[in-house]
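Notes from hallway chat w/ T.B., transcribed later so I don't forget. T.B. wanted the structure written out for a chain they're using in a teaching module, and asked if we could keep both sequence and structure tokens in one place. Agreed to drop them here.
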Amino acid sequence: MSPVTSKDARIALFQQWFSDNIPHNKALGLKVIGASRGFASMQLDWREEFVGNPETGVLAGGPLTAMLDGCCGMSVATMLKAPEPFATLDLRIDYVRPAEPGKPVIAEAECYRITRSVAFTRAFAHHGDAKDPIAAAAGTFMLGTKGRPTRLPPGDKP
């Protein structure tokens, strides 16, 4: 991918590409808060419809899993020379503790190795301190899958 000049432009581009154009991520309201080569960061705001246990207000695991998967995938996209389709091959998540009710959750992912056919990622979800994680993830992504890469509107360039 050719570099986007400013941090704000890069974040806006990945917001459009990975949240606004992917229906599931859009429904979750995922916000891209960081993107650079090999790195991605997203935020999931606490919403009542994401609560797994109404008595405690703790978020269900599904929205957190989806955010970690999307964030790991976005870290892979930052490593590609040109857009190409790819898919989650494997995603392991260790839940360390419950997310605190009412607080947004941040995911930070790193694509630490990429080969011709597989990309390797790791990520953490937290409330602002990556050293106090809610969950840790490790994911692999298959590159060059069938289909077309997500397309941006004409004029937008990664």
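Follow-up for T.B.: The mean pLDDT is 90. Might be a good example for the class.
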